[in-house]
Amino acid sequence: MAKRKPHVDVVMIGLGWTSSMMGMELTDEGLNVLALERGPDQDTVPDFAYPKMADELTYAVRYQLMQRPAKSTVTVRHGVRDMAVPYRSLGSFLPGNGVGGAGTHWNGHTWRPQPQELRLKSYVEENFGADIIPDEMTIQDFGVSYDELEPHFDFFEKVAGISGKAGNLNGETQQGGNPFEGWRSSEYPLPPMPRTLNDTMFRDVASAQGLHPFPMPAGNASEAYTNPYGMQLAPCNYCGFCERFGCLNYSKSSPQTCVLGALKRRDNFSYRTNCEVMKVELAEDGKTATGVTYIDENGDEVFQPADLVIMGAYSLHNVHLLLLSGIGKPYDPISGEGVVGKNYAYQMNGGATLYFKDKAFNPFIGAGANGEVLNDFGVEQIDFAKEGFIGGSYFNAAMTNGQPIRNMPLPGGAPQWGAEWKEAVQETYGHTMTIGSHGSNMAYRDCCLDLDPTYTDDHGRPLMRMTFNWKANDVRMTQFMKDKIDTLSQALEPDDYKLSFKDFESQYDVRPYQTTHNVGGAIMGSDPSTSVLNRYLQSWDVHNVFVMGASAFPQNIQYNPTGLVGGLTYWAAKAIREQYLKNPGPLVQA
Amino acid sequence: MSAKLENASRRRFIKGSLMTIPAVTVGSAVSLTADAEEPPPSLADYEPVYFDAEEWQFLLAACDRLIPADGEGPGALETNVPIFIDRQMEGKFGHAADWYMKGPFPEGVSPLFGYQSPLTPREVYRKGIAATRRHCQNDLEGDFRKLDGEAQDRVLMQLEQGEIAFDDVSASQFFAFLLQNTKEGYFADPIHGGNKHMATWKFIGFPGARGSYREWVDQHDKAYPLGPVSLTGERG
What is the separation, in whole angstroms, between the first and last Cα of chain B? Predict the structure, then answer.
């Protein structure tokens, strides 16, 4: 028999970016808000303090801040007729663990989508015709427009203290920024990060080719900054321990540095750690949630009643909890019916590694998001009908996290061990830079999430099963990018370089790290027969459940997701504050 | 003294006795200013915790081939890489403590799906070392340790390529763990047992745990001038 805790107005599942921000918004309304975090508590001091964070093995290789597969993982298969096997040890993606979630250990690459990415299906149909969309591709519109989200992107960037240069201020093109971005109502709150050698080399070559390079929008503070919540960021000191680490310097935008210090001071906010939510409980009619059941730090089952449930866990966990809770109809890839688990998507990336015998890049000197980028081959810049694919990428020359266990790119043909390996290490370390392409990934009928029939977690619940593989459309996209990056690489005149891009033989490989941008599965949209959430991130089926995060993306954008996740969170918060609380019920009639 | 000469003599020395490795031979032309409170153990005096005596000797010999003392820069033995690996066996990695280790474990799964064995890494080492030693005894009529360097390399390459099949463990998985952990021990902070006196970091020019470079960001194409520091405050 579960213990029962006193009622709260709002229970939030997870305490990363989205719950932190939603916590500020809903405590502003005077609501009593509780967050339940599966992992441990953690903060800059003592958990990320110098020097212990400067330990590549513990944090970057053994994943100290990440989800433990022993506690929670997924199973993976390539196709709907295959048997899935567990993702037993981390590789391809790294969901976070503990307070701050993945917002603790990210690099800070912070983007808005291009406006047309939010209405991708309509954009493709209007401009190129519906017949260029392959039969198995299931792309959709988000159901919310860039113009509607703009104030919320803007506020998120101010909360997170993003360093960058605007390229489009209220429709006016700005020198030095991204000329292809959607309009901004204001400049970035902080100027761009200082430039490293690779930045300037890439910038000069790209400019000479008529392209439009600009500094990466960075969730790393370029200067001292105080955000709208009164939280203070310190200038990044380029310590080199960013992705996979907590920031030791109060410089990386994170829930801890940007929100939680302010939120924890509020009497109407509380949080409990080491509390793992098992499911959202529903009233008998199945139309409203009554609260959540969780396992507390002593292993006891607890029922937490609440009027409003905010699902703010990592995207994959949000979908898993919806499936376990029976909220929304599970998606069936064979019939195409149902919605929960539909349109799981990832990110199509590639890159070049360039070796310069006589250049000293000092790769250990780096912020998470320093880098020079360009967007000339973005979704809105490409003629899909002519090129034969739907999608786009941005390119980045980033110098980050140059520690030697992981950052040891050797020339092609170098042996993996022995005296010649050691010689290659000495010749190469510090003499390479990279150019990456970071691209969209479309949604497909058979790329989806459901409950695994075989494998279970510690609590006996079915693991979630991921069915995913690379598709020809996205391979054509990345091969297009490969040609462009090959040209840029040659123009840089390296002594040696190698290209690494997916091709038509490529199958999804869970071993090498690719990106922690797992999206979809609880997608937003305008039609309850094709989406889990309405345009306000509210469940179509259970109106007092709102689901944050990139699980809402109907397909993946070409950018890192956090900027869009932040904007969507504040958009949903506004709808809850201004509409839902006055009259709880569906915000959009089905 | 030329690096070659120094390395040749160092190599003979290590192969011969595995006695104390003097710190002065570590690195090239860099003076050591170590001031860690507790000096790292010498490999010869170290009592392995996980590995038994025979396994330990195999590990020393294998590490010496994976990152030999030949040429410039330190080898795996003088940087205490085997000590690092022994300690990893006793930690979360060796026990696969963070990994999902529940069955079933179907056979014949594509390598694209990652680790799919019921064995923990420490079990893979134990079975892998035993099977490799048996292979050497049966097919090469000798102990792995006693083979010459070229013959040892051939065995390691056969493991790497999966050209030797063992009954109870994947040869290539065993080799993959061995190589991965050897490199980790070589490059990781000395706090984990390897990279003795940060010799590897000095060799490649990595400043370790300094973690503060703001004034160096726009000094382009100049090698960073300071040596490394470690998590315990050792300075090199």
Answer: 21
